[in-house]
């Protein structure tokens, strides 16, 4: 009985001496590919639209699986906010990753037309994906991360417009 009591007192004390590590690490994001597939002109009641495909790699550094919920981001091209990117629930294996693809139809406005034309002409542009997400960690809770820059880089593709 005395040994059991001594052990129950020592275990928490020894645990307090062990180095502490953050329980939750933020997943990492990398844009594998972003491509402007078409740029339509306005016609009648239909606005001009930029159609994009985006492939995003998400990595989970945690030793437990994580489900990302409420993933909402903004795509910025040369500093211009060109549109919203929403992904469905993203399931990440423990210490693993997944690739999510999204097809976007973004409205072209007077503020964003220059950025989309630059991409369509094959010119190099800077992009950034800023956003927030909630990580569903089961019994550990549902912390929300962000807003912060999820990914950024330089975008250049073959021209899709001849002018």
UniProtKB/TrEMBL annotation:
Tell me which residues make up the Water stress and hypersensitive response domain. 35-151
Give a Pfam family name.
LEA_2
Instruction: Write down the Gene3D superfamilies for this protein, in alphabetical order.
Output: 2.60.40.1820
Q: Which domain of life is it from?
A: Bacteria
Its protein name is Water stress and hypersensitive response domain-containing protein
Q: Which organism is it from?
A: Deinococcus aetherius
Origin organism lineage: Bacteria, Thermotogati, Deinococcota, Deinococci, Deinococcales
């Amino acid at each position: 009985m005395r040994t059991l009591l001594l052990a129950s007192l020592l275990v928490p004390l020894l645990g307090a001496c062990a180095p502490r590590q953050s329980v939750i690490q933020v997943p990492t994001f990398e844009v594998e590919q972003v491509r402007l597939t078409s740029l339509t002109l306005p016609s009648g009641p239909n606005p001009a639209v930029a159609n994009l495909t985006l492939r995003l790699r998400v990595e989970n550094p945690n030793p437990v699986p994580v489900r990302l919920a409420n993933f909402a981001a903004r795509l910025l091209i040369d500093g211009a906010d060109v549109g919203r990117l929403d992904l469905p629930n993203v399931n990440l294996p423990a210490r693993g990753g997944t690739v999510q693809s999204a097809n976007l139809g973004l409205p072209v406005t007077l503020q964003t037309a220059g950025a989309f034309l630059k991409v369509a002409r094959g010119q190099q542009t800077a992009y950034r994906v800023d956003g927030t997400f909630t990580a569903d960690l089961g019994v550990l809770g549902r912390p929300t991360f962000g807003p912060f820059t999820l990914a950024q880089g330089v975008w250049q593709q073959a021209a899709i417009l001849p002018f």
